[in-house]
Each structure stands twice: as structure tokens, then as C-alpha cells.
Amino acid sequence: MANGYGEEKEPTFMGIPRKEIAWFPTIDYDKCTACMSCVDFCSHGVYRVENGGLTVKYPYQCIVGCTNCKSKCPNESISFPSTEIINVTKKKYGIIGL
Q1: Alpha-carbon gap, residue 25 to 60, rounded angstroms
Q2: Where residue 61 sits, what CATH number does that domain have?
Q3: By residue range, what is the domain housing residue 37?
Q4: 56: which strand partners?
Q5: How far apart are CA 47 and CA 57, in angstroms?
Q6: Secondary structure class of 62 (helix, strand, coil)
């Protein structure tokens, strides 16, 4: 139980190993005020407070395509990659048009 969410399993997205999809938030620490809006909102445990600051501790627990925490951030300090990264990975695994 490394992350508090039970036994770790290899997560997937549409049959693709989750770690093959680089979809997770990035924090702009120049804008972040550690208000904890992202921590409070995200029910998937992506964020953690460590050494007095926020971190994306478990990036691959982020739901592929979800950007909801971004809209909760009052300082616009959270960003995500382009959704094209999802499409490219799906094509790589032969999943087209879904």
C-alpha cells in the first residue's frame, strides 16, 4: 500500500498501460500559492503536500483527459499537455477513432 489507495495494480486506459500516456498536471510554482484547491478537489490522490509545498506525487493516477482541477486553481498554476498526446498513443496501440 504505497500510496494509501490499496494494493498497487498496473492501471490501464482503453487497454493501454497508463504509464505509456504522459497525461498529468504540471504545477507552475511561480504562480502556485499552495492554496490546496487541487488537493481538495482531486479524489484520485494525484497531489500531495510534501516539505511545505505541493507536488504531483502520483501523476499516473490522473484520469486520462481530465483537466477539472485546472479550473479549480484560482492562480492558473496548473497545466496539462495537449490532448493530441492521447490520440498519438491510441494510434500507437492500434486504437483509432475512439
Answers
A1: 10
A2: 3.30.70.20
A3: 27-81
A4: 47
A5: 5
A6: coil
